[in-house]
Amino acid sequence: MTYPEITPAVFLERPNRFIARVRLDGKTETVHVKNTGRCRELLKPGALVYLTAPGTPGRKTKYDLIAVRKEGGSLFNIDSQAPNAVLREWLSKEGFDAVTPEYRYGDSRIDFYMEKGGSRYLLEVKGCTLEIGGVGYFPDAPTLRGVKHIHELIKAQKEGFHAAIAFVIQTEGVTEVHPNAATHPAFAQALAAAKKAGVKVLCLPCRVTPERLTVREDAHWQDKRQD
């Protein structure tokens, strides 16, 4: 996916999970943060951040904060809506006969339902923005919704779907994602149960620039030979 216009700024503070204050053109600007996770290791005073102005009428803030350069140089896209948009683009190239977003299954809306050759697929998407020592971790804050979706995928797998969870890695140089058991043990336990039940876990590395986020060209649907 591509953002139309990008403006660099300097991060100052994050009063709450929805907004941040940045230094832009010598002035303090309040901006919307498109990620309700903690992002504490990324959003530090003085960090270089990137903004986009969606131009939506009636907004309280002109800009969205969508990317940040971590101390040490790595660029992270932190837009929590980006992974689904990126996966929709990627799935369109993976040979599925049909791709339907926001599919109602059980008591949840699963991110994608797909069909291929008579087989049915369910895919839940998670964006990974937490990196420690070159390894990605999810989540960076407890997610009861994430645990619920994993249990739905386990149920779907047992009912004959090809169920999968995809971690979209929103920075470069990271190729694997581990459950962040220290932050949310229940998510780690649910993910382990999902793997045991046959739910596929995809770790999708990305190309990241301030203007663009895309799944890397060498990433493919991992179980295609089993379909």
Looking at this protein, list some descriptive labels.
about 230 residues, alpha+beta, Trna Endonuclease, Chain: A, domain 1, 5-stranded mixed beta barrel, 3 helices, about 15% helix, globular
What does the secondary structure layout of this molecule look like, with pairings?
Layout: E1 7-13, E2 19-24, E3 27-33, E4 48-52, E5 64-69, E6 75-77, H1 82-91, E7 98-105, E8 108-116, E9 119-128, E10 130-132, E11 135-138, H2 144-158, E12 162-169, E13 177-179, H3 185-197, E14 200-209, E15 212-215
Parallel strand pairs: 3-5, 9-12, 11-13, 12-14
Antiparallel strand pairs: 1-2, 1-4, 2-3, 4-5, 5-6, 7-8, 8-9, 10-11, 14-15
Helix pairs in contact: 2-3
